[in-house]
Automatic annotation (TrEMBL):
The chain crosses the membrane at residues 104-129. Pfam families: HTH_25 (PF13413), RodZ_C (PF13464). Residues 7-39 form the HTH cro/C1-type domain. This is Helix-turn-helix domain-containing protein. It comes from Terrihalobacillus insolitus. Residues 145-172 have a biased composition (Acidic residues).
Amino acid sequence: MEIGARLKEAREAKNITLEELQQITKIQKRYLQAIEKGNFDVMPGRFYVRAFIKEYAAAVGIDSEALMEEYESELPKVTDDSSIQYTRAQRNRKESASSSKSPAIFSFLPSVAVVLLIVGAIFLVWYFYQLSVTNDAPQSGQQDNGEEEIIIESDPEEPNDPEASTDNEESDNNNGGNSETPKEDESDEKPAEKEPQLNVVNQDTESGEPVTVYELVNPGDSVVVEFETDTKSWLQVENGKGKSFYSQTLQADKSPIQFDLTGEEKLYFRVGSAPNLAISINGVPLTYEVDPNEEVLQRIWIEIGNQTK
């Protein structure tokens, strides 16, 4: 019995089809058929004849070494006998063992790279967004970033000077005999109205956003605040009780704007771009006590002096 018939008989005895044998040995069906028919000329080379026969024999439960010795005369000769020992099954086992030894970390590298790219893209979007709004509208969250709001209470009214009262009483007594002075003289002696002034009362540069407190002296019978910009600036206007009059970006085409805040005791301004925003109260320009080129974001309190009723 030839070697091909021997192998075919063993295959059929185990009820293995050629298709199943192809899946087991990874050898193409046409080569398996050629082995069974003894047609070794269709093989890709002499080495593959012996290698495929060993694969076939191992799959159907025949001792491949004994089979090769028994049919040595039927098989084509090869120059390198050692290469016969290397079968496809051995190669698969070695490749599997080699791949199992590879560090598991390499399987995660593609996923890690994708995650890093996504994180990097998100960071760049966030960074450029922050740059675009630095001189526009400071986010409202910044006002609640843990900084304590500084509330400057107005100084209590100074008590009447007792010496001045005494002097006034003495003056009244001395002028008692002149009570019949004409009313025309009293009208001529009225003092001239004093001009309004903005004086710095307090300053705090240690709490993040610098805070400056001004006092408006001699406000007169009205308080009118004007804001003007050539570009744009964030602006927030409130009174001392937190009532909001304006809270948005002031654009150049909407500038200047005025607010009649007569009757308010305190005013609060939050400026997002101090170099680009001019402030005046009753026509008196407000000078930034903190250099606006160094601190573009500033908070300002205005204490209103006694207003003419």
